[in-house]
Every structure is written in structure tokens, then in C-alpha cells.
Amino acid sequence: MDAGSSSSLNCNSTSKCPLQEQFHRRRKTRENLDRFIPNRSAMDFDYAHYMLTEGRKGKENPSVLSPSTEAYLKLLANTFHMNRSRILAFKNKPPTPAELIPREFLSPVRQFKPSKPKRHIPQTSERTLDAPDIIDDYYLNLLDWGSSNILAIGLGSTVHFWDGSNGSTSELVTVDDENGPVTSISWAADGQHIAIGLNNSDVQLWDSTANQLLRTLRGGHQSRVGSLAWNNHILTTGGRDGKIINNDVRVRSHIVETYRGHHQEVCGLKWSASGQQLASGGNDNMLYIWDRSMSSSNSRSQWLHRLEDHTAAVKALAWCPFQSNLLASGGGGNDLCIRFWNTHTGACLNSVDTGSQVCALLWNKKERELLSSHGFSQNQLTLWKYPSMVKIAELTGHTSRVLFMAQSPDGCTVATAAGDETLKFWKVFGTTPEVKNAAPKEPFPHFSRIR
């Protein structure tokens, strides 16, 4: 029984299984087929029904139709548009393809502007003047260009002026031998008053328009004053004694702050555009950042940052005109590097080995460019693209190290003075429209030698 029952169950199962599998296969196949589902709104069912049923009755036996019937069928066909050849048809037209480029962008008015033409940089100086008796000393600062377009230069114990508007020259003062020579020069922002640092540690303040000595600042330093920097009514002085002094020129007791950090001569001083931070470089290879908010009257003010990356004297300093916390500094003969600093954090952003002594730095006021002047061995000017620091141009002409640089008030011309006793003018930063359209000027006279 068990075997028979088992056999019977097996037979029944084998006889039913093929049908079930076939049914499931058909069902699954139907579910997987893609069906065409027409859009009913695009169909004319009355016309379709007529064409499938009644439409061809007359064509099968056209001879039995009466003239009236033919006329009726013709009218009916015109009324219901039965002369069409298709039953199913799209009623809506396909959408117009979108334009890949809108037509307004193809019009001449919306065309892109042409790229800026490349600026021509003259490879030679525009003019050269004699600068006799200029002191070939890396640590001094003997050239400055004021806002009134007067260039001041210290030649030995004498300060000379050159007027950029007409090319005339004049002499401001010749100091006594016991006080001289002149060791630093700096114009105030008004372009009228000028400060002169001397070898005997004095600092003189002059009114250039009246050619009059206003006062002499004494008692701050014990040796020569080689660097000066103005900050409104504050004149900052740096000496060989390593001290940095803020002098308020409005009051009798002019010493208001003293910064102590350098152990050797201070040869570089520059205030930021905001007047809040002061950068100082020295012969001790140190670079300091001082903040006025941290200073107190007649005290040894603490620095904000003490930067030790340079391995030679730091004289070349330049604050960036388009980024207030960016400072560029250059090192002397054992360093050869230009370094960039974030003065908020004290971080060194970049360092570039120039291959020669860095004497001075100037930023272009219109483009992101930096100009550096160098000493041994090429005594060249190098124009750099910032921040890539790719060389744009190298200008040669001096036969001795280019110690001093000054920029014209319009930012286009740079004056350089070197140990070869020449003063050169370079159109390295472009040309203003006024200068470009002006008539050529007469040759500029040389500075006369002072005996």
C-alpha cells in the first residue's frame, strides 16, 4: 500500500507538473512583454469603427450604389475627414528642439571682451643722472620720492632735490662735517616736510617749500640713524644702536615709544598702510613685526612676531598694497632670498632664492607684481609676477649694487641709485596717459658735484 500510494502520488505529481510549469511560463512571459498602450485622446474611434466595418461596403460592390448614396458618402467622408490613410495619428506636434546656444549670446553686443594686451617693459633706463659722493653702504637709506613729485637723494653731506614735473634740481642743505654725512631720508605724507637722519645720531625736520629747518630731534640714539619711517605725525627712527624710537613731532618731548629687540643696526623700517603694524629689519638677520596697540609710553614694547628665517641682514621691506597683512622682505649676501609673511600669524608663506643680494623691494600699485633690486653679481632689477614669482623681466644697467629704490607718486616710474654714482629712471610699472601724450622733455641736468 505504501509503495502503491507512493507510486500513485508520484504519477499524479508528474502528470500535473508540466501543465503548471507551462501555465507559469506563459503568465511570466505575458507579464514581461512590452505592450503598446495608445493615447486615447489622440484617436478617432468613430472613424476607426466606420473604416473597419462600414467603410468598405461600398468599395466591395460600387455598382449597386445610387448617385444619392455616392453623394452622401462623399459628403460624409469630407465631414469626418475619411480621406485620411491612417487610423491612428498624433494630434499634437512634437516640441521645437531647444537651442544649444541662445541667440542673444551670438549677437555682437554680448561678445566677450578681448584679452588685455601685454605691457611693454623697456629694457633700458629712461634717463640717467650723476649722483656723485653717494655712500656705497648697504645699511643706509638715501633715496625717497615724495607725494609732491620731488625726489630727494643724499649725496655725502648734502641733500639734493630733483623735480619730476620739470626736471629741475636744487639743494636743500649741506650739513657740517662733524654732524654728517647724511645716513637716511624720508618724506612725510604731505610731500612738504622731510626728515633727514645724520651720522651723529641727530634727526632734522625740514620744510622743503620754505627751505627752512623746523627742529632737530636729539637724545634718542647714540649712533647714526640709518632708517626712517613716517606714520602720520609719528616719525620712527632706527639706529646703529639697535633701538627703534617713535617720535611725536608735534610735542617738545618727542620720544613716545621705544622698541627694543634688535642687537645690531636697524637698516629697514616700514609702516603698514593702516599705520597699525611696523616691520623692522636689522643687521642681526632678524625681522620684527611691532603692533602699536601693544606699545606703551617710554617702555620697552614687546614685539608681535620675531622672525628668524633670514640668514643675512634684512634691509628690503615692502608692504603689499592689495593685501594689508602681506609683507615682503629681502635678505643680504648670505641669504639671497625674498620671503613673504602673513603678519597676522607670523607664518612664512613663500621663499624665493634670487641668486643675489636683495637690496630693495617695491610693489606695483596697479598689478600683482614685485620689483627687487640686487647686488652682486649682476646688479640687476628683477620684476616678478606674484604669487607665482615667475620672472617677467630683468633690467641691467648699473655697474654696482643697486642699493636704493623709490617709486613715483603715480606708481609708474622707479628711480634707482647705486654705488656706481648714477641715478637711473625706469618705466618698469607702465606709463600714465598724461605722460604718454605729453611732448618730449629736454634732457635732464646732472647733479653737480659738491666740493
TrEMBL record:
WD repeats lie at residues 175-216, 259-291, 395-428. Gene3D superfamilies: YVTN repeat-like/Quinoprotein amine dehydrogenase. Residues 1-15 have a biased composition (Low complexity). It comes from the Eukaryota. GO terms for cellular component: anaphase-promoting complex. One of its GO terms (molecular function) is ubiquitin ligase activator activity. The keyword Lipid metabolism does not apply. One of its GO terms (biological process) is anaphase-promoting complex-dependent catabolic process. The keyword Cell membrane does not apply. Belongs to the WD repeat CDC20/Fizzy family. This is CDC20/Fizzy WD40 domain-containing protein. It comes from Vitis rotundifolia.
